[in-house]
Amino acid sequence: MMKEIRLSVGTLPNSSPHFGTLITFSLAFSLAQRLEKLGKSVTVVVGLVDTGSLPTDRFILEDIEYQKSLASTGKINNYLTDFEELLKKLSSYFGNLNYEIVNQSSLSLHLKAPEIINKIINEKEKIGSLLFPETKRLGLRSACSQCGLADRYGLNNCYEDTRINFFCPRHDRYSIDIQKDGLQRLEFETPLRNLIRGLLYTEDNQEKNVPYSWLRVTGSDQAGFYQEQIFYKGAALLGIDITNSPLIVYSPLVVDWAGVKLSKSILVKGGYKYLIDQQLEYLINYQRFRKKFGDEGLRKLFKEVDLWLEEPSRLFRSYTIFYFAELFKEEKVITSDIQLEEETWISLQEAQVEVFPKYDI
């Protein structure tokens, strides 16, 4: 029996989908449509990393960085509507494709997750040094059940067999037994999450009784370094065969005038004012793009990305903001007078000095 294909794509939903996310999601749905035309059954699985955080919800205390996740603060709900709307439009444009939205707990619920995480913990020194060379600790955390605060990089974690002890600066230590308590309360920093996800997808791909196999679409940030090289080395350290690991399709980067990636982190912090000055504010995020060009503009963007799978030269490259400025130069503007939202950002240094003592944790 032919396996269904699950096409994995993900993002940190700490803002309205930024322009790079629009590109990556569009490429994922375009690829899914082409696979369906080849007779495959495809579902696009959109992972929203609800365990990530906003810069304003990160704090430093005694040289340890703590965070409150988007799920813990409820701020993930600020942007869910934009993601849901975008996915509906993508599905409709590319032939009413099936898709589903999942969060990080979907990894923890996988039947093989306890085995994989146990292996990683047993090799925590080697894996920690590989994934987090600055701290040499696993980026494994769990939010305090009383206040939601978590040691972002797991620097204060203590490991005893299957029990992990975590530390909260307000409520002291608490623990999870990953065999008895389950894994749903665990959170994984990005490199660790990438390793765990890749290993779980590999297990699915090689298991005959699993009715689907995985492909991945992701941005070509860091030239795929941690998505592949770090993943391969991590799997080797764990002694896991990854012959059937998922194929990864990389979406092109969108770069600024200097050839540097149009950074989501800078966008979230309120940067790139020059885009607004040059009337290129639609390159900031989905909300601004849709306000300016409406559904016609979205369809034009989807059509453009769809062309990239026609010719490798279109896919294996980066695109400057000026490429899109030219593409949308003659596009009908719905509104050119966009009221800018007040965007605030507090640096970690400011958070340490000003916010943490006042923050109700």
Structure, described:
This protein is 40% helix and 20% strand. The protein has 361 residues and is of the alpha/beta class. It has a domain at 4-56 and 71-103 and 252-358: Rossmann fold (3-Layer(aba) Sandwich), CATH 3.40.50. The strands form 5 sheets. A 5-stranded parallel β-sheet has the order 5-2-1-12-13, with helices on both faces. Strand 1 (4-11), helix 1 (19-37) and strand 2 (42-48) form a beta-alpha-beta unit. The longest helix has 22 residues, at 286-307. The chain starts with a strand and ends with a helix.
Summarize the structure.
With 361 residues, the chain is an alpha/beta fold. It has a domain at 4-56 and 71-103 and 252-358: Rossmann fold. The chain contains 14 helices and 15 strands.
Radius of gyration: 21 Å
Shape: globular
Mean pLDDT: 87
Order of helices and strands: EHEEEHHEHHHEEEEEEHEHEEHHHHEHH
CATH class of the domain at 4-56 and 71-103 and 252-358: Alpha Beta
Beta-strand residue percentage = 15-25%
> Which strand order spans the largest sheet, edge to edge or round the barrel?
5-2-1-12-13
Query: What's the CATH architecture of the domain at 4-56 and 71-103 and 252-358?
Result: 3-Layer(aba) Sandwich
